[in-house]
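We append the chain.
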Amino acid sequence: MKILINSFVFMGTAILSFCYNTYAQRAQTTLPDWALGSFSRPEPTGAILLPDSNAVFTDSVTNKEVHW
């Protein structure tokens, strides 16, 4: 019985998630009158950040040095 209930909960969550994602995508395509629009993403020309084995930063949670 628990498996059946869990299956219904999972399917309901999946359906709601799909419906919300579809709604959010449709909502983003229509801009209000006051919004600036017609922006397009430029073609990628290369990475802005590249891995650097010499780069070190301090983790704010553990306060330990972390390498890239």
